[in-house]
Amino acid sequence: TAGVSLTAQQPVNNVARVTIQALAAILGGTNSLHTNSMDETLALPTEEAVKVALRTQQIIADESGVANTVDPLGGSYFVEHLTSKIETEAMAYIRKIYDLGGMIPAIEEGYPQKEIAAAAYRFQQQLDRKEKIIVGVNKFVDGEDSPIPTLKIDQASEDAQIASVKKVKKARSKDKLGSALTRLKKDCREDRNIFPAVLDAVKCYASVGEISDVFREVWGVYRDPANF
Fold this sequence. Notes:
Blueprint: H1 13-27, H2 47-62, H3 77-99, H4 103-109, H5 111-128, H6 155-171, H7 174-189, H8 195-203, H9 208-219
């Protein structure tokens, strides 16, 4: 389901949103389904919220009957119309990207970034003008939302993990680690397959951050061009 559709306002409403989206996915023939928890816009989900998300799938699977046939919407003219519409619009994007020389030149020119930004702006305008309704956000607003419990991470767990990482870093061989990261840097610069070097670095207990530092040193950090 789409986490982007969840709202921080009246978060219990997200249960209904997720249910509708999950049902739509099943009607569309999905072979894998994840249902978002209602409180994901506020924090990591609580155990109760995760259970509700799981029960949503189980109710649809075992109570609704929607899974009793392979393709419940087979032959629907409306679904066929939507499929053709999506295909036409997707092919228009593919042709545009092809004309720009491929995806990499398109990104360098800022084309997909501009399209995403423009779509987000149009969406916000529709909300502001109430051409698009989101319950609890721009219509049926209660004023002051009732707070719901959110997950609190135990500080002791965080401290224990930090201590564990420090222990590993202290015990590992600095010479082996340095050699592994040097090899990784060399392979990056020579445009080789870096996967064996990454595995070697991991075996020497290099952290994700240390491996990523090598990538950043060789290739820099990508910045989206500001094209508006």
